[in-house]
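Thread: Newbie trying to understand structure tokens

Hi all, I'm a second-year student working on a class project, and my supervisor (Dr. K.) asked me to get a predicted structure for one chain before our next meeting. I've only ever worked with sequences, so writing a 3D structure as a token string is new to me. If someone could post the tokens and maybe explain what I'm looking at, I'd be very grateful. Here's the chain:
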Amino acid sequence: MFFFLTGLFYLLLSFGGLFKKSGARASKNFCKFAILIPCHNEENVIKFAIESLQKMDYPSDLHDIYVVADHCSDATAEIAGSMSAKVVYYDDSSGIPGKGRAMKWALENAVPLADYDAVCYFDADSLAHPKFLAVMNERLNLGEQVIQGHQLAKNTNAWMAKILAVGHIISNRFYQKPKYLLGLSATLHGKGMCFTSEVAKSHPWHETCLTEDLEMQMRLVKSGIRITWAEDALVYDEEPTAIRQYIKRTARWTKGALHTARIHLAGLFAKGIKEQDFCSLEAALWCSHVYRFMLVSVTGMLIYYTKDYFNLFLWVYHILPGVELTVKLFFLFPLVLYPATALLIEKVDFDIFVAYFMQPFLGFLRLPVFVAGILRNPLEWGRTEHTSRIAISDLVE
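---
Reply by user tm_fold:
Sure, no problem. This is what the structure looks like when written as tokens:
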């Protein structure tokens, strides 16, 4: 019943993604931005990230780029400094790099927040569209406090990356956009984010959570701060191209999501019920998704072990006339056919469309990834290697 109701909710929610986007609103007031890029040994990609930010269609004196060199032992800091970025060095006594810890330290010790209206966050492997700051400025002038940009994959040179790129397209169209239109909070992705300086100061990053963006998202919702989504503020992210990279990254996310759920799930659910706050209830539902693999596994095992006894689901499926086909079509539409319409609407290339039907391949990795996430050291951040040498000029004319 839980899976049915959850699936039905998100299916109905996704219909909002079929509406056209609203037109852009020109803004006469220009905000000043601090752009924060936490890095740990990112000499292969940092120059492309900085280059994209320097090509902003926004007054150059109204945005400063801060590169946080987090226990770097390569040329990341030197490259950033040669490109006129403000480099700050984070080397605490632990010697352990960590994104949340580095960002918290930088905002408290290196970035003069009083000089800026807002802070934007990017990863070293991400690229920003030239209109990114202009769109964020527009949203800030509308009174929005926390805004997530429209994330897309920058590299689709391998089938693994193509499959993951499909996930972004579907999520943006059928999850992020409808939530924004309905007044719910968007999902933070760790890059392409914009916080007002006031929020950035009052909500420091969690130092040890492996999914600091998810933890921040839940904390903001509990505080009554809505996260909006900016469809026109594009940010491009590097996707894993090898199974090993994918498993390592997803195991880290799983551990972090479990940590976040332990911290926030009960509180979000209680707040949603007590205050009749639908944003908190939806956030609690999203936060609980990390447990879905366990629930699916237990449900599957129960069905299997009771197959020789009376099982209402199997009885309905096998006995009642026409139900077998009806049930199959019922699950086929929302799980297979309907999400594919997002790709048609976005007019993706044929290889991306084909990659959509390869997504079940990742399903076979769920068990080892989930187990690896449970066993993972909660304090071990774990860097994802980035090698894509794609520039913003390769993506935007």
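A couple of things are worth pointing out once you decode it. DSSP finds 16 helices and eight strands in the chain. The mean pLDDT is 87. Feel free to ask follow-ups in this thread.
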